[in-house]
Design goal:
Two copies of one chain form a homodimer. The first copy, chain A, is α/β, with parallel strands linked by helices and 277 residues long. Chain A is built from seven helices and 13 strands. In chain A, the strands form four sheets. Chain A has a six-stranded mixed beta sheet, sandwiched between helices. Chain A has a three-stranded antiparallel beta sheet with strand order 1-3-2. A two-stranded antiparallel ribbon of chain A has the order 4-5. Chains A and B meet through helix 1, helix 3, strand 5, helix 5 and helix 6 of A and helix 1, helix 3, helix 5, helix 6 and strand 5 of B. Chains A, B: One of its GO terms (biological process) is negative regulation of purine nucleobase metabolic process.
Chain lengths: 277, 277
């Protein structure tokens, strides 16, 4: 290959790497031109190839912003069909009978510690909020954290962790009381005061939802911070007898039925897939 | 450009994306040949270009495994100089005086919720253990979780979360008692029984270490599981008067001095950088 072809190849590889590592970030053409000591016209051609490939392979959208202050922005996305396939595979894994715990709970911790699965879940949830302005992802300790982090990687915004127990390392906190759906008990949750700015647009995520009490607590906390709730997405929800504390949420998985006697769990895709896009 | 050049460009972009998304995973040439309906000889050429570019740009190592069962394996790495620059920038951020909390604690939660920073920290810590066989990353809830997840992304192994409070959703657990270094109290920590296999090789990570009591607790827990400790790396350690519970560990940052009276924090690079590589 000639020298210029080699340089194009190297640029394409490194630009791909850079864009994937900086989702939702405006990168100027000048940045790339300097990084590779190449003309902006060559960079433009490179980006056109990357844009086309990302689209064809379902990696995401490469937005082009024209003008002097312009550049490109990579928005990770997952094709609808691919997300459905992934969630169907998850339904099978969740239905494994040795996941059944006393009280009808479902063991999830192994899944929520797998990097490959978290990447997929993060990409699926982030895809739902591509068009929204989001300043922070919020979750509650401990099991929501991996999901919040996975989503925050793809949206490229920070995540904040609400806690049920106060910790000296959090500084001043704001707390709210909430009704835990499953036990009807009044509980308390708190968030470090400096972790969320007033007016922030917040996406709430969690691992599991029954009555929705915990998520509702986070909703109150968002109000206390004079912030704004953009949406709620949970990894899994379970069937709930009675009135849920919240109505408007998205779930990837729906635990339809748990039978402790016959040791069966039946899991189907959640309402994320209710309407075809 | 001719058709074949376009195809090479598209392959390079998509292969880069695929390899970055599957670190430490053996990918056969056949996999790529089928994915792009291309000859293995072309794929080999592509991979040689990617290997060279990854090396030049400090993205990592692309290992080539020859033979019928062979293929390539991407090992993420960070150049020593780059990691040092990143940690120096972190030292400055940690030294900000409004991070000082009552009792001489340092506020870290905002940093440990930033995806860009977590990616860097994950890459730096994972770089230290490239050559080691690791089966799981272990940490303790809650603040260690983001670091464990970040490291697990780059090593492509699951992470497990040790908890101080028992949760019904964890199933049967194994617990140990440990002496909390800072308070000299006896505390308890536990890990879900099914989360770690006997003989697993475990890397322990945590956000902050003072006396090392918590990390020492995880060490006992690893013994209880008849697993093996590979190493310990903490994001930050602070100066400790007296005998630490553990000796052999790595830190990215060292909080040398905290003065609550003058409100100053002095942070320098940790022992990760003690010996030049």
């Amino acid at each position: 290959m000639t020298d210029s072809k080699i340089r194009r190849s190297e640029r394409l590889i490194d630009m791909t790497q850079y864009l994937l590592d900086h989702p939702h970030t405006l990168v100027s053409l000048t940045h790339f031109a300097q990084r590779y000591k190449s003309a902006k016209s060559s960079i433009s051609e490179d980006l056109a190839i990357i844009k086309k490939t990302f689209k064809q392979r379902g990696t995401g959208i490469l937005e082009t912003i024209p003008g002097a202050a312009g550049g490109v922005r990579f928005i990770p996305e997952i094709p609808y069909e691919e997300s459905k396939e992934l969630v169907k595979a998850l339904c099978e894994r969740l239905s494994e009978q040795d996941r059944l715990l006393p009280g009808g709970y479902v063991y999830l911790s192994d899944l929520l510690g797998q990097p490959e699965l978290l990447r997929q879940v993060g990409r699926i949830i982030a895809s739902k909020y591509l068009g929204e302005k989001i300043d922070a992802v919020m979750t509650v300790a401990t099991k929501g954290v991996p999901i919040a982090q996975a989503v925050s990687y793809y949206l490229n915004v920070p995540f904040v962790i609400v806690r049920r127990d106060s910790k000296i390392t959090e500084g001043s906190t704001v707390s709210v009381n909430y009704v835990s759906g499953s036990s009807e008990r009044i509980e308390k949750m708190e968030l470090s005061k400096r972790s969320l700015k007033r007016g922030s647009r917040v996406l709430v995520v969690d691992d599991f939802m029954k009555g929705g009490g915990t998520v509702n607590g986070m909703k109150s906390l968002i109000e206390e911070f004079e912030a704004e709730l953009v949406g709620i997405t949970v990894f899994a929800e379970s069937k709930f007898k009675g009135q849920r504390a919240i109505e408007d949420y998205t779930s990837l998985l729906y635990v339809e039925d748990v039978d402790t006697r016959t040791k069966t769990i039946n899991v189907v895709p959640g309402n994320y897939f209710d309407e075809e896009k």
